[in-house]
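For reproducibility, we list the full input for the coenzyme A complex.
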Amino acid sequence: MFDKIRIIVRKIKLYPLKILVRRSQVRDVIKKDMDRWVRMTDNSRSDYSVFEKLYWLIYAENIEEFRNLLYYRIGSPAGFLERFLLNLSRTLIKPVDTLLISSKSIGPGLIIKHGYGTVIDAEKIGDNCLVFQDVVVGFKNEADDRPTIGNYVHISVGSKVLGNITIGDHAVIAANSVVTKNMPPNSLAVGIPARIIKDAGNKAEYVASGEILA
Ligand SMILES: CC(C)(COP(=O)(O)OP(=O)(O)OC[C@H]1O[C@@H](n2cnc3c(N)ncnc32)[C@H](O)[C@@H]1OP(=O)(O)O)[C@@H](O)C(=O)NCCC(=O)NCCS
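The corresponding predicted structure, in tokenized form, follows.
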């Protein structure tokens, strides 16, 4: 009985977000995000409806980082109703305070693991990237001096990617590296300052799929 009441209350709390997702101009991107997050947490739930996936990620799995990504996608809606629903949602379902996402554009499927103390402020991020805790992707000197990140890039725990640089598709940035120079596709960067020491092969795609670092 108590469980049923709890589920009903949660669904009511989720309702404003459901409307915002349905009305969002980027709902297809949001759906792709959800598909990837669900695939990563429990592949057997992939045939859930959009609302069921939302419930699964926010309540059953309680993935706080996903909330931040969702609010980033929703952005700052122009309409009064949307703004009201967004404020209500952010009160009912709080984002993580220490995870900042403010990039100009981010492709679908971004996964953020343990996203505490993480800032994602890129010029552009491609599809299906993976970012860990204590990462900074951001400016080096000027506010618009920000990286462009490719697809399937893996940014490991503690690393910093700074300045107007380009990180190629499938690049892997090792834990605690500081990257301030371009990285070609499929490369691996390690250390401070980061040096490119080998071809990362398909490591990024494999790791970024989420299956081995869940
Ligand atoms: C990027 C990563 C996958 C590379 O691992 P790998 O392919 O097994 O690399 P290797 O162990 O073959 O190391 C290759 C070289 O890079 C060095 N290296 C690897 N990671 C390094 C790091 N973070 N900093 C400095 N050097 C590093 C190794 O010492 C080795 O040097 P050598 O060629 O001189 O012997 C790994 O370092 C990493 O960062 N993993 C992700 C960690 C993470 O985010 N975990 C989440 C925890 S919540």
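Confidence is low (pLDDT under 50) at residues 210-214. The two ends are 33 Å apart (CA to CA). Both points were considered when choosing residues for closer inspection.
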